[in-house]
Design a protein that fits this description.
- This protein is mainly α and 123 residues long.
- Helix content is 75%, strand content 0%.
């Protein structure tokens, strides 16, 4: 039992680290890793779970998602800018062919998902 709690805590900490790094890297999502951290901490440590949910920066996106699948407008804008940069950089480097096609399909699907979440308009 103790081993499982420790494994959940370790998984939560790894996920939290990835989420924090994702706040600064355009290709790594932040909120999904925060949600995973919250789920892991809920199974491994009430103290860490409560800390994460009450954190002034990390807690609100988790609460927004849990309360209704919402993404705040500022987060939507940041995600769409990251998506645009993720597409613009390979184009600027002259990437062509199937790589660009895959990027268009995947990034468009992600953008549509983000834009269709409740939480307010981006514009």
């Amino acid at each position: 039992m103790r081993l499982m709690r420790n494994l959940w805590i370790i998984a939560g900490l790894i996920s939290l680290g990835a989420g924090i790094i994702g706040a600064f890297l355009p290709l790594l999502p932040t909120v999904p890793f925060l949600l995973l951290s919250a789920a892991c901490f809920a199974r491994g440590s009430d103290r860490l779970h409560d800390w994460l949910l009450s954190h002034p920066r990390l807690g609100p996106p988790i609460a927004d998602w849990r309360d209704g699948g919402a993404i705040r407008p500022a987060a939507k804008r940041a995600a769409l800018i990251a998506i645009a940069l993720s597409f613009a950089i390979p184009l600027a480097l002259g990437t062509t062919g199937w790589v660009v096609v895959v990027q268009v399909v995947v990034l468009t699907a992600v953008a549509v998902f983000i834009l269709t979440r409740p939480g307010g308009s981006v514009f």
